[in-house]
Fold this protein.
Amino acid sequence: MVHVALTATLVLRFADVGVATYASLRLVGEPAETVTWVVEQAELLDAVNRLRDALPDPVGEETRRDALDRALTRGAFRSPATELELSRGLGERLIAPEGWQLIAVRAGTATMFVSPSARLAQVPWAMLAAPGGDRLMEQVEVLMAAPPNIVNAPRAAADWSRRREQPALLVLDPRVPGQRPDAALGSVLGRPSAETPLARHYAVLAKRRPVLPEVSAPVDLFRRTDIDRRWLADHLARRPSRLLYVGHATAADGDVGHADRAALHLAEDRPLTAADLMSSRVPFPPRVALLACASGGDYQFDEASGLVAASILGGAQLVTATLWSLPTAAGYRQFAGLDADPMSEAIVAVDDAHEAHDAGCAVNRWQRQRMRDWCAGDLTANPLYWAALVSFAVDGAR
């Protein structure tokens, strides 16, 4: 997709009402260009179940190992052909033909903000395919709308143009106390080494711009034991330009209904919840990346007040998060049988994108390229990584 100018804004919104889900797509500023439709329960459940069976999150009695095995060897993301079938099925069931027509009219000139319902909170909207096979991400820039209760709440604001020269704050796989590297809350990135792609990436970044924490060697950014909530608050108070967190997150239980129980795991025994972040009024930089298990799950709840909400209330204008758990490089290699590190590739891509003037769209550009690589037969470009990423934007951020 090549944009001449992004001059139009589309809003795709879903609302669960009883057994049905109502949808609307409108062009901002043009009330006549609005289409509405209903996603019937049977169609919605079929779409959600198909997606659930494709993801590496445990279903029923599955272990995480079982779930990863299923996702990489038997699920829809095992091959480009089965993934396209899933994406077409989702596109057909969730977006009406009239919706695709309105999108096609604005292709190449529009940014679309998606506001899903709780039932559709894990849908990777950008990869959805129209009946003809064109992906949504190839027609418009796809961003997530921040939940209305957050956008309309009193909140701080940190502007990228004023902070871009400040250091980048990097929290990379903090060591959770009492957890062996291969435990449930063990290492996400593996044993630190100066020769890993991530260490080499941050060596280059540190030569180009200041980073926090200050370290003598890039390898010292990983698996730190001093990153607790006090450390994080102190470093956020230093007004960094952006925050990148890679590690473990605990998703709140959607059946319980408390989004603010979603939490980040730092180098301390007690996880740092979204409620903790909001109550302590921790200031966030204008750009935040939370690459952790289902960190972008705010929309699973009626009152969307999870980790994304906490970041935006603290000042962030753009938050890139994940819809599901990203498999570690070791897990990917074990079950995919390929010598690749798509986890590190995704982290580098997001880190680079958050240095660009249009960070959310820069993430989209990388996703489009990996989608094309995948469709061309590059099995290392698995959608379990690129399709999991979503960016929430407020205050005109793109």
The longest strand covers residues 8-17. The mean pLDDT is 93.
